[in-house]
Write the structure tokens for this entry.
Amino acid sequence: MKDKISVIVSCYNEEESIPLFYKEMNEVSKQMNHVDFEFMFVNDGSSDNTLNELKDLAHKDNRVRFISFSRNFGKEAAMYAGLEHVTGDYITLMDADLQDPPSMLPVMYKYIKENDYDQVGTRRVTRKGEPPIRSFFARMFYKIINKMSKVEMVDGARDYRLMTRQVVDSILQLKEYNRYSKGLFSFVGFKTKWLEYENVERVAGETKWSFWKLFKYAIEGIVAFTTAPLSMAAILGVIICLIAFIGIIVIIVKTLAFGDPTGGWPSMVCILLFVSGIQLLCMGIIGQYLAKTYLETKKRPIYIIKETEKDL
Ligand code: UDP
Ligand code: MG
């Protein structure tokens, strides 16, 4: 029996990229004629012609399947839906914009088959073509989260990876609503090989990530994988209490020794502002965790499907 590789591609307004992606992926699948392929495109509520492109492909090639969402649910939801529906022995996740080169697939497959790895991930070693400020914050984010969380997050790691069925089944057991896949892939463990490559710029269309969206995604990662900020809030509270205690003693001693001249209100205002700022910050941190807990308890579906290739 031939092995089957399932390729999951999340697509959000990728009408221009899809034909280019399919062409290149098809070439790779021809090279790898010793394995069967299944292409699972997930249309994440695109407002352009993406769905029709996918329908055309599904008519032309019976290896092509698709899932179309009822609206935009985000890339995390798209990847999850893909993982739930594919049938392959080995599963890979790719972007539609060819930033994840399909040409790496044969090498990844070789590592799993011959060197006994369970997952082969990819990481960008350069961030060419990205605004420098974004690269700077990305690096900072990885430094901070790796200090705070036990689950290792690899700097520059992409979602592009090849996994065995066993790894995918473990990921599917993590049913959380707030999905931060980079952490989930590493949380499940298994033997992972990292392949490095130079950043490739997207072939067509434009990135869907604004700075603000990335910032929110970073907070999501932190809240999902560590509760360290909560402990930090508590520690900060203790430190400020200690400072206040020392301050009280200093003032008492000063008053006893030198009498009680009025004044000192500017310092009072500063301290008041500082402490109330810290209080609001800590409440905000708690709020983040509370909000995530609130969303989890609602148990809403991660995605809603409108149609698939079976409806054609
Ligand atoms: N994507 C998606 N849903 C979204 C946003 C993006 O499915 O809400 C897909 C997008 O079509 C692409 C992949 O996720 O295939 C990566 O997106 P993008 O290229 O914009 O991100 P970048 O490569 O710049 O990190
Ligand atoms: Mg991209």
About this structure: The chain has ten helices and eight strands. The domain at 3-226+301-311 is CATH 3.90.550.10 (Spore Coat Polysaccharide Biosynthesis Protein SpsA; Chain A). The pocket of uridine-5'-diphosphate (ligand 1) is lined by residues 10-12, 14, 44, 72, 74-75, 78, 95-97, 99, 202, 207-209 (CB under 6 Å). The two ends are 29 Å apart (CA to CA).
